[in-house]
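Last lecture ended with a question: if I hand you only a sequence, what can you say about the shape of the protein? Today we answer it with a concrete record. The protein is DDE transposase. Below, first the input exactly as provided, then the predicted structure, then a couple of comments.
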Amino acid sequence: MDSKPNDCNAIASFYGVSGRNLQYQYKEFLSNFKAWDQLKHAEKWLLFPQNIGKRLSIDETSLSNGELYTVVTNKAAKGRKGTIVAMIAGTKAETVISFIEQIPIKQRKQVKEITLDMAANMGLIAKKCFPNAIQVTDRFHVQKLALDALQEIRIKYRWQAIDLENEAIEKAKSSKIKYESQMLSNGDTNKQLLARSRHFLNKNKSKWSKSQIIRAILLFDLYPEIQKAYELAQDLRNIFENTQNKIIGLSRLAKWHEKVNQSGFKSFNTISRSIENHYQTILNYFDNRSTNASAESFNAKIKAFRSQFRGVRNIGFFLFRLTNIYA
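The predicted structure:
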């Protein structure tokens, strides 16, 4: 029996009983929630040692009102039953480590690889809890930093365009002249061009539509710095997609760092330094081309599960249902 509110209401209506009462009966008696062996500590920590595999992911997710949980998942389960290894309230390394260390060290030493982002707490958790595991920094996390830097530059020019338009409008008012926006060949104003360029800048040019190609030509002609930043972000993506081993990867990243230094973009220099500080774990990607995509996919499932229940009113029961499906 499924406990989704809509399903409960439909079943209750069919039998002519209260939907709210049916949900209560399911939670309190039919679901075995009260007999759950992890109920007492569920909101603080959940462990499923039997789900440990050789390749894990670690990430954080939000259940309700921004409350974060650290989640360790088994890649081999492919987002189905047996996926969850641990779910622990909070992201503080010391707290998470103390709970995961309840799993026998013999089992934890079976882990050979763990994917994660560049957060220091995640690295410390992985190091302390899974001492034999090679850490792999998620390539998509690195690429997203570059795309965020690109969007920051676009937004800077957009604010400038808005300021220029406001000044022109005020000048026209003071001169008692009707203000008319200057239109580009595709019908956009500069402000609109910068606003509407957001999505295609995140994609490879091979995936642009015809209108996006036209918009890109106009954008790069008016704002060559945006084009330079776009090329830097795409160059980084190409390194991950078209490099076969660590040696070549190291050489290509070094060349990319040089391009960043020459660009003079502060945000890209910050990313460059972050990559240098995580060189080894980033280069480990080229061994098995492992990413944290499975963890991100699992986070999406949690969000979808949460939306079905229109939020999380009872965290314990929510976790009970979640772990029944994925643990």
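Comments.
1. The mean pLDDT is 88.
2. The chain is about 55% helix and 10% strand.
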